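Sample A.
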Amino acid sequence: MTEPAAQFTITLAQLNPTVGDVAGNAAKARAARARARADGADLVVFSELFIAGYPPEDLVLKPAFQAACRAAIEELARDTADGGPAVLIGSPWVEDGKLYNACALLDEGRIAALRFKANLPNYGVFDEKRLFARGPAAGPVTIRGIRVGVPICEDIWLEESEDYENVVECLAETGAEILIVPNGSPYARDKNDLRLSIAVARVTESGLPLIYLNEVGGQDELVFDGASFALNADLSVAAQLPAFEDSITTLRWSRSEAGWRCAGPVAPLVEGDQADYAACVLGLRDYVRKNGFPGVLLGISGGIDSALCAAIAVDALGAERVRGVMLPFRFTAQVSLDDAAKLAAALGIRYEVLPIAQAVNGFEEILSGTFAGLPRDITEENLQARTRGTLLMAISNKTGAMVVTTGNKSEMSVGYATLYGDMNGGFNPIKDIYKTEVFRLSSLRNSWKPEGALGPSGEVIPVNIITRPPTAELRENQTDQDSLPPYEMLDAILERLVEREEPLASIISAGFDREVVTRIDRLLNIAEYKRRQAAPGVKVTQKNFGRDRRYPITNKFRDTGEPSQQPDETLVSRASRGSAEAFEG
């Protein structure tokens, strides 16, 4: 009888795939397998749907794409005939006319096993029930004589419910010795604590060690932070990989009477505001890189939003790929011109000043007859913003550089932005950052920068930009608080309205002024048409505008702020509650 293996060496490939780049993703898998082979690994593991890139969205429904993924998996399977490590890799898979979110075990020159995701997420940014068929709760796969359970992402996330297939319980009951969980888990603030609590629950209920492998990198609005980890069966941390960077890490597991155990490297993790900033950097970097832009440009106003975006851009791409343009008009204060120049010098970016008076005055002259007898109002303010947007887009067209949009979440919530003006651009790194956090991140960047940042250390955002009251400078002596409540109050109300979906009555009862809350709710609702046309941007909160929050533009409902009427259960017939019996009037 063959003695059971005493050692099991697993390489975790926490990598950055690109959606649709099947050949490129396969090349990354081969390079990682070569590293794993050099480390003497028995197995190399990749993240969820790695060969396709995650999330592939409706691209995964394209038959040609499905065929390309299948062909790449087959080629990787043939590679394993060389006697090197087995491969556990995610891919879409068509079987019996159904499309599955699959994980393939490749070993000894063949596709040795397939496991299909059983629990398909259909909330927040996830939309898998409309894409994939539900797989069965299958038993473990055998790798070099060791029985490995392969629950895929949501297979460990969902708690018991009517729709939940308890994959981990099934694996434990059918002899799994260790759980390896490929994930595509996007970043949100404090997400690591949630992941760890979910993993602890699965280890506790199964008594098995667990490896949680996440991808890293930006994909449109989503950023995947990596931060993969492993837990021993006693809930001690077996390994922790870094966040926001690629990592190929080999773990050596040893068998004992109590099961498999590992003592691997434990990397420190960035958290809180530092993690949010790192997510913004990675999201912008990958959007630019993966879409082939040579660089970026942005309007530098001397204000804090454009200053933070410029710092993020330089950290993401390097100063040589960032261009700043100051577009002053007669309402632009000298201090704004001075601060913008200081910012550009501190960051080391190309910087130019293009006055817009001639263009704005030209538009006003053209419209003078049409506007005859009408008072000046926000229309003329918007003309300034749209002139700036037009000039930035012209430079973008000529150079190929992408315009970075610089509006924060507070402004996007209440519509404090101009369509086809300052909303112009291809990507917004601070779209999901409230204004109060913009201030915090700007101060933070002057004392810290993330690992791998390409910008200079030290103070890069002039302190005066951080301390000066924010203003759009579209009219004389304008400040944001002329038309908005203080940002501390505004952001607290918005967080309750957007992230928590709290009724107005609840917000008012928490101590906020009824008139202010009602007004902010109205602004939030009527700005939906603007947000629908906004550039994509990095998700960092629990609920971003876009994938998380899908409100109709045409929407007449308004919360009155009064307590909701309690349901009258006496009006509901017992026979009406989903009964299969025939209706009797």
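Sample B, a different protein:
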Amino acid sequence: MVRSQEGRVEELRAMDERLLAIMRTTSDPMFMKDREGRYMVANPALLRILGRDLEDVVGRSDVELQFDPATGREIMAMDRQVMDANSDLTVEEVVRTREGCRTFQTTRAPLHDERGRVIGLTGTARDITDRKRAEEALKESEAKYRGLFENTQDIAAVLRYELDDRGKVADWTLEDANPPALKALGAGSLSEVAGKRMSEVARTWDLPPLMDITDLVRMKSAPFIHGRHIEGISKDYILTFIPLERGRFILTATDITEIKTAQRRLEEKRARLRAIVDNLPVGVAIADTEGRIVEVNRMTEQIWGVGPGDMDGGGQGPRKAGAERPQTERDRQLARALKGETVINEEYDIERGDGSVGTIISSAAPIMDPRGKIIGALSTVVDITERRALEKDLAEAKSRAETYVDVLTHDVNNYNTAAMGYLQLAEMRLHLEEDDMKYITKPLEVLEDSTELIANVRDLQRLEAGRNGAGTVDVCRMLKEVKEAFEDPPGREVVITLDAPDHCPAMTSGLLRNAFSNIVSNAIKHSAGPLDVNIRMDFEPVRGEDGIRISIEDNGPGIPDERKKVIFDRSLMGLTRTVSRGLGLYFVKRLVEDLGGEVWAEDRMPGDHTKGARFVMRLPLRQDTKGDA
């Protein structure tokens, strides 16, 4: 029996050795305490937490050893509970240590003697601080996810793949859905649709084409984004598929219907704008910030004689192979526009794609965004090649016509002068009866009209050519010369009075003398019997400038009201006295307007045209003349 007891003791000793070895090597704190809560055994892991040696720990309680005495009292209270209840207890405890607060999962068990009495307790503790922190972080993350999931404006749902016999995705089962998703499915709560197949709850979504996409997401375990118009609900969405574990995935749907509608409207506007630009009678080109042409209309291609895509890198003309294109004036125009300058109607010659030469007028302006930043340039081109050719032909034709008119007026005037000389000699030497004198006087009148007509044509020619004889002239002297030239005509009683200063120099045209002569001559020729003609000049502002007013009135037969508006616009219809007068008044109107003035006819006695006519001219002065009056 002695040997049996000795074997038992050895066995217990071996067990104690093994227990001590475990306690020494484990990373979890282990301890034994007596009935008073004093440590009897503490392994190295516990000693590291307490920051003490074994000799300092054995025989002392937690109140004496803990960094925080309050924590020590809580631990001892838990120990007494285990020993009093004589039962195991596992709890999570927050212990304040030198390294801060740590969370432990502690298991305590009562320690018995040979008779089963509780003589203390034993326990193990595991530091679960990191795990608790991870759990808290996970809970926080889940709360954030749930908040995002519930509050996002996009449709969001958690779905599970449903496979067919071939292992392909055939349907989805709904596990979770946020409020926008429930609204899209027509459900009031998640319980109405959770666990159901999408083919049952989303019949209008045209799901079959999306099954191949989710099959690809499932196999590759990679997110996938897909834009789709869902005809059944007339909506446009950006669908995002995000794979999860255990055969599930997240589906989000962003409603882009308004964006798509705006894009379609923008495309329609661009199409309309493109149609307008393509049908403009001018070439239009748009350049980027580097000066490269990014868009041109049909007229631009037509002007340059190239097809679509054949413009060179700078967009200034047809692409040429083999050589660098020299910088053109239009290159410089675009460069100026890209610097913020606006270029208007600059003319230069171009070489077209077929080698022909043309002439264009080009303008350029910067294109700016709403913040005023230059984002490109716009160039417009007008082909004036034909116009230039027509202008050249017109100039040549005008030159020829002027030559013909010069020759005609010179030679015909010479013939008229000679004929009039012979007729006047005949009138003096041939002592004809009064009835026969009309054969002399009538031809003389016709020749005089012809000479006047030629003078009017010559003056009009000078006006049309821009040779109005502008310079410093004395208007008062002109009026005196006209008075002297027309008073006391043969066979007529004509009295001409002049009311004007002695001198009134002005920057105007020497042709005014002819205009005054036309009016006075018409008054004499288109009246019979005694005639009074009054010429008057006054100073009067014209359009805010210093000016003069010249009136020439007579007491002849006058001009009916319906004729006053048209006498200055008569066209040459034949060689008659009336036409001669009309052409002369047309010349008067053209000259006065060319000098910046105005002319009109009115009744000498207001309201009674039979009492004579008054012609009024108002002309601006180009220098101060009032001091000479």
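Observation for Sample B: The longest helix spans residues 385-429.
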